[in-house]
Amino acid sequence: MGKETKNIVIVGDGVAAWALAFYLREFSVKIISGAKHNHTCSFNSTSINCLRGTERGVSSLGDLICDSMDEFENFFQTHSPKGVDLGYEYQIWNELDHDKWVRRYPEFLQVQNDSFLSQHIKRNSFYVPNTAYFINPQELRKWLLDHSHAQVQSDFITEISLNKNEYTLNGLNGDYQADMVVLACGFQTRFLTPNTDESFAYYLDHCKPVVGDYLELSHARDHFPKWQESFNFAVGKYHFIYRHAENKIHIGSTSLNLESRELADKDLLRKIYHDVSAQLNFELPIFESFSAHCGVRHKGHKRLPFWGKIDDHKLFSVCGLYKNGFSFSFLAAKELAREISEL
Ligand SMILES: Cc1cc2nc3c(=O)[nH]c(=O)nc-3n(C[C@H](O)[C@H](O)[C@H](O)COP(=O)(O)OP(=O)(O)OC[C@H]3O[C@@H](n4cnc5c(N)ncnc54)[C@H](O)[C@@H]3O)c2cc1C
């Protein structure tokens, strides 16, 4: 059993909450899951961890991306969790974009010299392989929560108040008491935080919802029986992702600033399907065999994520994880768990 001495509530049921519950595994925590009531980006994501040439010492965002990836890899190597499949992301470009990509990847290879890539990519082009972790959110969630002391309660919180060192969370199904609360609510965080400190309010006011649409095909090996491991062809702006363990293909995704919606834009996805198809040397299953999905990312102010305390008592948040939620969450969880366990 986890320690009973702290009554910790995490609001949210995405990767930020799952990772934190795991890093707080010596404590009993309650996760209040709004997943049945509203959108969870972590279940509507193409969920890959890959450094993509990011290096330390260039920007504070780049440093955080590298530190988070280190923490994720450390977690992966130490615990061998379920729901993480290792493979490669191939960044691929042609002559037209050569100058742009060479700045990021001064050392590159030729597609025509690689038998797997030249079979699958149409034009004579250049590429760089990067190690990538293909994450199955449902499986990773199960593993993280099975290895924590988290109790999951389905509810949607409408208000949080503090009275005599105790928080009361009002939900649609009931009220909850807590000594400490962590909001891991993605782009909805803004609406649960009326009395937080000024700098956090400023941060939230400058965050944006950013929609991402993508296509999904199940039973991928019915079409491509020879593929043996996960890979991602990052061709131009879009990705063709084969997820071996899940036996799925993803194509996408869009990045539409200031949009938050739960229905995918099928017209846009049809165009992306044709754009990606034009770069591939094999025939894709027909558009109609794919299902359309979308998720709403929370883009932090200056693209920076946030985690830390947000009032002068024991209210915390982790949000603004944008396109790196599956690695940022692990560094955030490590640092928040340390702070919380010292209180
Ligand atoms: C198309 C797409 C592709 C992506 N690809 C990648 C990728 O390759 N790699 C990567 O790292 N990231 C990727 N991302 C981003 C990543 O998915 C997100 O950063 C991550 O899922 C955010 O996790 P989160 O836990 O912060 O938020 P969420 O997963 O959105 O979770 C928030 C939770 O809070 C709950 N909630 C909100 N308000 C309340 C309330 N009032 N009461 C109770 N519960 C509440 C919601 O129901 C939800 O369960 C992608 C995103 C999209 C859309």
CATH homologous superfamily placement of the largest domain: FAD/NAD(P)-binding domain
Oligomer: single chain
In DSSP terms (H or I, runs of 4 or more residues), the helix count works out at 8
Number of strands: 19
Could you tell me the radius of gyration in angstroms? 21 Å
Name given to the CATH architecture of the largest domain:
3-Layer(bba) Sandwich
Q: How many distinct domains?
A: 2
- Broad structural category: alpha+beta
CATH class (first level) name of the largest domain: Alpha Beta
Distance between the termini: 20 Å
Shape estimate: elongated
Give an overview of the whole structure.
With 343 residues, the protein is of the alpha+beta class. It has 2 domains: 1-83 and 136-207 and 302-343, FAD/NAD(P)-binding domain (3-Layer(bba) Sandwich); 85-133 and 208-299, D-Amino Acid Oxidase, subunit A, domain 2 (D-Amino Acid Oxidase, Chain A, domain 2), CATH 3.30.9.10. Helix content is 26%, strand content 33%. It has 8 helices and 19 strands. The strands form 3 sheets. Strands 3, 4, 5, 6, 12, 13, 14, 15, 16 and 17 form a 10-stranded mixed β-sheet that branches. Helix 1 packs parallel to helix 5 (137-146). The longest helix is centred in the first third of the chain and has 20 residues, at 60-79. The chain is elongated. The relative contact order is 0.21. The model has no long low-confidence stretch (mean pLDDT 95). The structure holds flavin-adenine dinucleotide. Residues 11-17, 32-35, 38, 40-42, 44-49, 156-157, 184-186, 188, 192, 212, 214, 252-253, 295, 297, 319, 321-327 line the site of flavin-adenine dinucleotide. Flavin-adenine dinucleotide binds next to helix 1, strand 2, strand 3, strand 12 and strand 17.
